[in-house]
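Example record used in the benchmark description.
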Amino acid sequence: MYHHSASSAAQSAVGFATSVLDPAPADHRHADHHKDAIVFQRCTWCGTATYHRLLCPVCQGSELRTERSEGTGTVRHSTVVHRNTPAARNVSLIEMAEGFVVRGRVMGPPIGIHSGDRVKLSTAKDPVRGEPVFQLLDEPYRAWS
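Model output (structure tokens):
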């Protein structure tokens, strides 16, 4: 079995991790349009969208081009977490419109976030946890009526 050396693995990991959540746009002419965006990879061979991966999960291809997400998605799973925090918070899996899944937090009451809710990216990086933060697009209190 082949193993990478520690120095080359650390160099590739550092370069990769800094480009995944990139609040600074590559093209400075459109700085206002892309203040906060999620950057994902798309396989050049099969077209599969992936998030924070080194290889395509479908064809195992290593030629991944970087794209920016439009920032809308659907909650696929949400859970309320009570540990290591003074207040309850939610952790959600969001399926983005481009076809990849990202873990993040949805603003609002944790009990009011359900599978199927539509969300939009609020900020690409939570200051504490470093995860994307989303806001609900639909009426958040629909279950209370």
